[in-house]
Specification:
Helix content: 40-55%
Bound molecules: ligand 0O2
CATH class: Alpha Beta
Shape: globular
Distance between the termini: 28 Å
Number of domains: 1
Strand content: 15-25%
Strand order of the largest sheet: 1-2-5-4-3
Low-confidence stretches: none
Largest sheet: 5 strands, mixed
Mean pLDDT: 93
CATH architecture: 2-Layer Sandwich
Number of strands: 5
Structural class: alpha+beta
Radius of gyration: 19 Å
Length: 211
């Protein structure tokens, strides 16, 4: 990678690293207190340079306006077991003092035409550099395991078809999204029983390992 890009992306790398630790820390606290954790697992990435350039061209964002106009150069993803957990995670993030929520996009109540469902937060996050503080934008996507399964599959197919899905594939994906939604609904109805079983299970065999 060119030195200039490396320097530009360094604060984003730092932010993603710090946020992963912090979000995983939330999960750890729930586990230590033997409570159901609304966070199943966390991933994070800095958008690759070629994806940044493709998206910038697509959205007419000039390269010297990336900091202000591209909100997902730093991206975090939080996976939850149940739809109800998503609300709890959003509330926890809202109450944090180390970041500021700039925008919320609720693609759960208002799913995208593709069938995509997730809750998006755009945040402003301050990183401490040797030159002082720098506030950067980051996007946090919060979704259930079922929503993540769908989005991951759809994303790889999207890559193959470059967004131009044949009609039949589009319909199949929409049906699969509906099935994922039904799965989330079913799991929600038996949530209390599942959580009770998980509680007993984790007590019986000691704490599960972290990822
Ligand atoms: P990548 O490869 O994940 O980084 P807009 O699309 O105009 O509504 P914007 O600014 O793109 O708005 O933000 P949005 O929609 O809140 O978030 C975009 C990101 O959400 C995408 O990033 C995806 O990660 C995810 N996403 C949005 N729609 C879909 C979808 O239909 N399918 C899947 N699989 N993911 C989706 P990027 O940059 O597109 O890609």
């Amino acid at each position: 990678m060119e030195k200039e890009w490396e320097l530009f992306l360094a604060p984003y790398e730092q932010a993603v690293g710090e946020m992963k630790v912090k979000l995983r820390g939330i999960r750890k606290q729930f586990r230590e207190q033997n409570k159901h954790t609304p966070i199943e697992f966390v991933t994070g990435r800095v958008k690759p340079v070629d994806s940044i350039l493709t998206k910038a061209a697509l959205r007419n964002i000039s390269v010297d306006r990336l900091e202000e106009e591209m909100q997902d150069i730093a991206g975090l993803r939080i996976m939850c077991q149940f739809v109800e957990d998503i609300r709890q995670v959003v509330d926890i993030i809202r109450n944090r003092k180390d970041l500021k929520i700039i925008q919320e996009r609720d693609y759960i109540t208002n799913k995208k035409e593709s069938g995509y469902r997730s809750y998006h937060l755009v945040i402003e996050y301050p990183v401490q550099l040797i030159t002082g503080e720098k506030k950067i934008l980051a996007e946090i996507q919060i979704r259930t395991l079922a929503m993540n399964f769908w989005a991951t599959i759809e994303h790889s197919l999207n890559y193959k078809y470059q967004g131009a899905f044949p009609e039949e594939m589009k319909e199949r994906l929409q049906r699969a999204a509906e099935a994922a939604y039904q799965l989330d609904e079913e799991m929600s109805t038996i949530r209390e029983e599942i959580q009770e079983a998980q509680h007993l299970f984790s007590h019986g065999r000691g704490k599960s390992k972290d990822n």
